[in-house]
Write a structure and sequence with these properties.
Distance between the termini of chain A: 58 Å
Number of helices of chain A: 19
Largest sheet of chain A: 8 strands, mixed
CATH class of the largest domain in chain B: Alpha Beta
CATH architecture of the largest domain in chain B: 4-Layer Sandwich
Shape of chain A: globular
Distance between the termini of chain B: 36 Å
Number of strands of chain A: 22
Strand order of the largest sheet of chain B: 7-8-9-10-11-18-19
Strand content of chain A: 15-25%
Helix content of chain A: 25-40%
CATH class of the largest domain in chain A: Alpha Beta
Largest sheet of chain B: 7 strands, mixed
Largest interface: A-B, 24 and 22 residues
Radius of gyration of chain B: 20 Å
Oligomer: heterodimer
Shape of chain B: globular
Radius of gyration of chain A: 26 Å
Number of domains of chain A: 3
CATH architecture of the largest domain in chain A: 2-Layer Sandwich
Number of strands of chain B: 19
Number of domains of chain B: 2
CATH topology of the largest domain in chain A: D-amino Acid Aminotransferase, Chain A, domain 1
Helix content of chain B: 25-40%
Chain lengths: ~525, ~325
């Protein structure tokens, strides 16, 4: 663990990607197979989560450091990361014994089997008192899942390839097939990546679509298949006699949330992996996304809610069928396999209709028809294309048309996390209702770091109160936001929430009195219902 | 001794002396030459000779505000309004001093900005016993731990050498007085060619008069940067970036003790070395001063005062509307 921590500290202290990979690859090379497996577990996160929250960490830090919780909270606020805060608080107060990866794994297992938070805090506090501060920092980052996941995972893959001399693309493909980084690492060392077999019941990476730039037009429109773009939850269903898993984006196993769908897949013969969308579905059409969300928010799914919000899985691709991985097959082949698999299914399982586009002039009419069916827009998929797992590919184009934008006023700003830990980067915003400002949403993307820094300074100067990480500000800053829809929401006083709000501009030219009104929000909401 | 705290500064009432006042006063003690401490034209200004020299560079004589300067050598007491005043080294920057005021059988010590561990340049702090202590707490949280000067020296020169070996330009940013000269001195001693921004170079002669040698540093010119380490002020780094120079930045500061400084300072290498005391140094200073009463005046004053109270020390953080922005924070 000490060498892993030192390696990660060196990785953090250079901005050169090559050097980062060098550090990590050199470290991997020095490990035997068992330690490599342990290091990878800490780097990529284990499947069994420890559910250790801030309060457990704080209790453990209190125990190990002797500082009171107010001071720990203040320090945490300055630092922004639990692992680093605890490491700094314990500097010079531990025995500085070395921690092997085996010791760290043992501690990890003990934490996993401890039932109560208090037991976990005691285990952690006592272990920290023996460790070096650097090992503590990275052990905590690891068990709280606080490595910046996407970036870290890619770096680990590249370093693994570099340390074993295998081709990165081959390693990634093997990883996507099997989902098991330990097995892939061993195979890379043994030179047997090609033999890594596809495994069911781990999520394959989704292929993603690029937005279609309508201004550019689509000169080769006849080269595309067209389908509706559904406003649901992108999902991947795996089944094999008697077993079903449904994964959603973010690679989460969401089978528990969809018992009705799981049951339907249980009756399917053979084994396969389908790519599709989970929708709330009644009377032959998709219901508003809000309805689906309400069902997902339930902890317990009663018979009433199952009957009230029935779901459907609408399939549009097949990635694996009866022993064969189909990612590299052409879309036409995959489609015909999909159609034969689903030849005789009935709701809640469905096949997404697909047609060949004849010209770009068709797009408008098809878009309007998709919206009329309650769907979000269109997806265009290029003839002859393969399934590019994990990629946002130009072979798939999504046609979405934003609703009108709204000018909103920021009412509160929240401290970000990670890279943006010291800035106010998440904004709650409102529309006008007479003299009042009523919140309609929260957004954290769309602005540059430079703009966020400037806004942070500005918000601090107009702050009226502070609740933990949230700074309440005078309603003064106007942002222009785009969004993909409006839904009813009890969370906001306005009664509405924007879906996927994105900040387009900081409208320095506008005063808060010029922001959009609640009435305007109601209008847009009514117009979406009419469709 | 009655001491009043207000937005204009700290007033030692019985002898009518202001400590680092923010506006002109009849009589002022200037603890060191940073402009948030030594500023404007108090009619009578007391400070160490070095502090007064640098103060004059920043606040040249002005006939509209006649002024008498009283140089005070370290450890040489002077009489002032019936009190005995003695300056002691504070280790913060060249010339920085603590002030011991003895009056009516009571001792009051004002630290100004200080550092306990030996500084890269300037005199090491002398721990002074007192009854009543006024201490700063810029880094008064137990997360702030700094490198020793030997470690800092090594990290600074290692980083510069590594960048140069890779064909990149190492850039160090620091505020103009104190940190800047320390970095230039480190690099010069290590035999690394240095280009220095004018705002920092301006104060090098003051250090040279004090016996420090800076080798053959040259003036920073934007178009001649290859093969040299650059010591500059923060804004300039962006210029270099914009010119497409392959540069790598190090941030030498107390704030570099925390990883999020990487983003704030936009630097890949963090070198946590400060001209202020880290948390453990502050605690040691308070304990060794044997003060019975402690006023904490800057930074995490409330939190640090509470930590002292929890240790049985009579400590408070007097309310003082914030007029000052420390130079380091501004950087």
């Amino acid at each position: 663990m000490d060498r892993l921590a030192a390696t990660l500290e060196a990785v953090a202290s250079t901005s050169s990607r090559l050097k980062k990979i060098d550090h990590l690859a050199g470290y991997f090379r020095s490990l035997d197979d068992r330690d490599l497996a342990r290091a990878l577990m800490f780097l990529t996160g284990s499947k069994d989560t420890l559910s250790i929250g801030y309060s457990t960490l704080r209790d453990a830090a209190e125990l190990a450091s002797g500082w009171d919780r107010d001071l720990i909270r203040l320090c945490h606020r300055e630092v922004g990361d639990s692992g680093e805060t605890i490491s700094l608080l314990l500097r010079g107060r531990t025995l500085n014994l070395s921690t092997s990866l085996e010791d760290a794994e043992l501690l990890y297992r003990k934490l996993g089997s401890a039932k109560r938070g208090a037991d976990k805090a005691k285990l952690l506090g006592e272990a920290w008192m023996r460790m070096t501060p650097l090992a503590i920092k990275y052990f905590v980052k690891s068990i709280t899942g606080n490595f910046r996941v996407g970036l870290q995972a890619k770096l680990v893959e590249e370093a693994l390839a570099a340390s074993t001399g295998v081709n990165l693309a081959d390693l990634r493909a093997a990883l996507n097939r099997s989902g098991d980084i330990l097995a892939v690492a061993q195979a890379a060392r043994a030179g047997s990546l090609a033999q890594v077999e596809a495994q069911l019941f781990h999520p394959l990476e989704f292929m993603l679509a690029k937005p279609h730039d309508e201004a550019q037009g689509l000169p080769d429109a006849a080269e595309y298949f067209v389908e509706d773009k559904y406003d649901g939850i992108r999902s991947q269903a795996h089944w094999d006699a008697g077993k079903v898993r449904i994964f959603t984006r973010g690679m989460e196993d969401s089978t528990q949330s969809f018992p009705d769908l799981a049951e339907a897949f249980l009756r399917m013969p053979g084994r396969a992996v389908l790519d599709g969308e989970v929708l709330a579905w009644r009377d032959g059409r998709a219901l508003n996304f809000t309805v689906l969300q309400q069902r997902l928010a339930r902890k317990k799914l009663s018979a009433e809610i199952l009957a009230e919000v029935p779901l459907a899985f609408i399939a549009y691709d097949v990635l694996y069928a009866n022993g064969r991985l189909l990612l590299d097959e052409a879309i036409e082949t995959r489609r015909s396999i999909l159609e034969s698999l689903l030849a005789s299914v009935a709701p809640p399982l469905m096949l997404s209709p697909s047609a060949r586009l004849s010209s770009s002039e068709e797009i408008d009419a098809r878009f309007a028809a998709a919206r009329a069916r309650g769907n979000e827009g269109l997806l265009l998929k290029r003839a002859g294309s393969v399934y590019e797992a994990g990629k946002r590919s130009a072979q798939w184009l999504k046609v979405k048309r934003a609703y009108a934008t709204l000018d909103v006023v920021v009412t509160a700003a929240e401290q970000g996390t990670g890279r943006r830990a010291t800035m106010l980067s998440d904004y709650t915003f409102a529309v006008r209702d007479g003299e009042r400002y009523l919140n309609v949403g929260k957004a954290y993307s769309g602005l540059t770091d430079e703009e966020i820094r400037a806004l942070t300074r500005h918000f601090r100067s107009i702050a009226t109160g502070r609740f933990g990480r949230v700074t309440v500000v005078q309603p003064e800053v106007v942002l222009e936001v785009a969004f993909d829809g409006i839904q009813k929401s009890p969370r906001h006083k306005s009664g509405f929430a924007l879906r996927f709000p994105r900040i387009l501009h900081w409208r320095k030219d506008k005063r808060p009195e010029e922001a959009d009104t609640l009435e305007r929000v109601q209008e847009i909401y009514a117009s979406t219902l009419a469709q | 001794m009655r001491v009043n705290y207000g937005p204009e500064g700290i007033h030692v009432e019985p002898i009518d002396l202001w400590l680092d006042p923010q506006v002109s006063k009849p009589a002022a003690w200037l603890s060191h030459a940073h402009s948030d401490h030594a500023r404007f034209y108090s009619a009578n200004a007391l400070a160490t000779p070095v502090t007064l020299q640098i103060y004059r560079l920043r606040w040249p004589e002005n006939p509209e505000f006649p002024q008498t300067l009283y140089p005070m050598e370290y450890r040489q007491p002077v009489d002032f309004h019936g009190a005995r005043l003695t300056a002691y080294p504070a280790g913060h920057i060249l010339g920085a001093a603590q002030l011991l005021i003895e009056h009516g059988g009571e001792r009051l010590l004002y630290t100004g900005d200080l550092k306990l561990n030996a500084p890269l340049l300037g005199d090491a702090t002398e721990v002074v016993e007192t009854d009543h202590l006024i201490i700063e707490s810029t880094f008064g949280l137990p997360i702030y731990h700094f490198l020793s000067r030997e470690e800092a020296r090594m990290r600074i020169s290692d980083f510069a050498r590594e960048c140069l070996a890779d064909g990149a330009v190492p850039v160090f940013t620091g505020y103009p007085l104190g940190r800047g000269q320390e970095i230039v001195h480190c690099l010069a001693e290590a035999g690394i060619p240095v280009a220095v921004h004018g705002a920092i170079a301006k104060y090098i002669p003051a250090y040279e008069r004090h016996g420090y040698q800076f080798g053959d540093w040259e003036d920073y010119k934007a178009n001649v940067v290859r093969g040299k380490a650059i010591v500059t002020i923060p804004g300039l780094k962006r210029n270099l970036e914009a010119r497409g120079v392959d540069m790598r930045a190090a941030y030498v500061s107390g704030w570099a003790a925390v990883d999020n400084a990487r983003l704030r300072a936009n630097a890949e290498m963090l070198i946590p070395y400060s001209d202020h005391a880290g948390f453990d140094e502050l605690l040691a200073l308070v304990t060794r001063s044997q003060a019975r009463r402690v006023d904490v005046v800057h930074g995490y004053a409330e939190a640090f005062a509470k930590i002292l109270r929890d240790r049985g020390i009579h400590a408070q953080a007097p309310r003082q509307a914030a007029l000052r922005v420390s130079e380091e924070e501004a950087a």
